[in-house]
Amino acid sequence: MSGLEMESSSKPKRSIGVFERLSKDKPLKSFLSSIGRRRSPESDTSADDCSCVSDLSPVAKSVVSRCARILELPAAQIEKDFQTDVADYPKQRGLYAREYLQYCCHKTLHVLINRHNYLADKDFRSLTYDMMLAWQDHSTENQLLPNEKAQSNSLKVEDQNDGSLFYEDSTALAVQVDTKKTVGLRAFSKIAPCSPFIADFVTINNIFDMLTTSSAGSLHFLIYDKYLKTLDKILKSAKNYMSSQFAIRLNLSDGEIILAVEGNTPLNPVLKHEGITAWPGRLTITTHALYFESLRIGKNNARLVKYDLSGDLKQVVKRELTGPLGARLFDRAVMYSSTSLKEPVYFEFPELRGHSRRDYCSEIIHEILQAHIFIRQFNLEETERGEALSKATISIFRYIAIREALHTIPSNLKTTLPFNLANRLPREEVILEALFNYFKACPSPFFLHALGKLGFTSERSTDGCLCCFGLPKSLETALEESFDDSEKTKAASATVDLVKAEGLDANITMMKELMFPVIKAGKVIFSIINWDDPWKSTLFLVLVLYLIQRGWFYYIVPISFIFFAAYLMWHKLQSKGESLDALKIQVPSSKNAVEQIIILQDSISRVDDIVKEVNITLLKLRALLVVGVPKATEMVVLALFVLAGLLIFIPIEHLVLFQVVETLTREMPLRKKTTDKVRRRFRDWWARIPVAPVQITRLNKDQKNS
How many CA atoms lie within 13 A of 627 on its CB side? Predict the structure, then answer.
């Protein structure tokens, strides 16, 4: 039987239904069962009481009527409270109807979510879904077409007790849950987060995306109903774990909650790798630690090891490869390391295909770890610390429910775990700062009281769990900007995948084409320095000398930046928001496998030659530093003393002028012979320097393992 019950109406047909229901020997779970016996005639509320707000659509009037029955208030009184509580309510007809409806829904949900076991109540699930439908179709200005209304009114919702406790008439109600109508994101985001278990404002978009994966962004009641029923089952299962002998054996600390248990059956264990050994066992994830219970072969007792997640131990948790005897073969493990361990521990989650089991546990562990990092980062007080951890706990239960109900694992930027999402979005520090301010400003711990109601924590609310009506502007703005930036990042990543070319020759050709302006500018400068055209080189030399002499040389770089910025703005104005034209690149014809192997071998040999030349240069420098060649070292020492003297006694401006003139006149006809002579002398001197001795040894297998 349902957890909530509607009292009788003055209609004869409804009265018969109530007597029939009372005649059944079943317990009445709803607090409304006693309301019908003590209500006065003046407080009777019917659907017609909503007529005071004439702009409400039929579906909205039905929802307001049911809200009035639950609140035991006339609709007129609720409207009066609305105008009192919401001082800046909108005066426009359509907006007024929507805000009034939203006020009724929130006030009703404030009562309902304080009832025990409300997620298991089918009528609660139906009512909340109807609230979303009503929010979408709140006004007579946007109500359904006649044929759609006829379909909606003709539908019936089956109930094992022959009626819905939230409806005035179970056989001829005004608006029932319409399986052909669906709920959009905005309506879902206005109603669902009022319950701490159904949704969270931080991850509301991702939760909705997961629930509507198969329905193109529209939420059907059957999916919504299945999600809430699965969530209720997950919560009850977690509660059973907390009261079992298994929890007692773990010796949990105060406020520690069991979140997930993997490896419960011997056929599907978790393997813990330490060095080259692996032990099967059971991994328990709680709000404070990981507990691994290894099953030792030939021993009756299991060995329990705790790996802390709450302390500041520089914990690192990441996905890793594992395999037998320490081999890195299978991508299905989670690595845990901290300052309390000598070496990392690897937990492998065996499965026949894929690594979804590992990803599922990894997401949960990361959420708890990020929550504790957030707590330490902002030095939260006891109540705020409990609220942050409760938020992560409830989000994990929600995450498990989505996995069980929809057989999918939200990950990366689609995760439904708030601290994981904040850690992966752009502007992470802004989101966390806004979340901290939200916890500081919250008058009552919303998530902590919700867990306390179910008996997970010792925290109890005197007024019951307060209903969460929205986010502060700072957090909402931070989330919107972060999601906007993440969408831009995603779009940019998609363009990267489109331009990736296959083959070394194609990529080299693309690089040459993209670097063409730089290469062309380099060729021009190189031509000027080499005095290929004496007139251009002379003009360039005079210009540089004039800039240095006038003291304008230091303005060249900032002026170049200004010129470049002006060039970019000119291009922006010329493009007028149009997309870029595709860069046309002509790549050579594709080569067969043998030709590609030959090109690869040739490239590798060239790289090998370059590395050898670099090593020879470094070894010669080492010989100079350790005085392996005394005469050469003496020359280097003398050159360093001369250079130091020049830097001390000559102004830096004169040295820059000298270096510029020397570089630009090095290849001019008057100096070319002298330059070539100096280069030959330097090459001969460098060739006479021997390399420092090197002894190359190779490690054997035993040394590698040690």
Answer: 3
Q: Which residue has the tokens 């900032």?
A: 558
CA gap 405, 422 in Å, rounded: 25
Q: Write the pLDDT tens digit of every residue in 159-171.
A: 333 333 343 333 2
Cα 380 to Cα 377: distance, rounded to the nearest angstrom: 8
- Output the six-digit token pair for 516: 């063409």
Task: Write the pLDDT tens digit of every residue in 188-220.
Answer: 999 999 999 999 989 999 999 999 998 888 999
Query: Within the chain, what is the greatest distance between any pair of CA atoms?
Result: 119
Distance CA 559, CA 372 (A): 50
Say what percent of the chain tops pLDDT 70. Answer: 81
Measured distance CA(378)–CA(431) in Å, rounded: 13
Joined tokens for residue 488: 């831009």
Dist CA 232 CA 240 (whole Å):
12
Please report where in the chains the tokens 């009552």 appear, as a residue. Answer: 444
CA angle, 582 as apex, 577 and 588 as ends, to 5°?
170
Chain position carrying tokens 């105060």: 254
In this structure, what token pair is assigned to residue 191?
Answer: 């109603």
Of the candidates 384, 373, 369, the one whose C-alpha atom is nearest the C-alpha of residue 318 is 369
Rg (CA), the chain: 37
Tell how far CA 357 is from the center of its chain: 19
Identify the bridge partners of residue 270 per DSSP, sorted by sequence position: 281
Counted residue by residue, the chain has a size of: 706
Q: Are 305 and 289 in contact (CB under 8 A)?
A: no
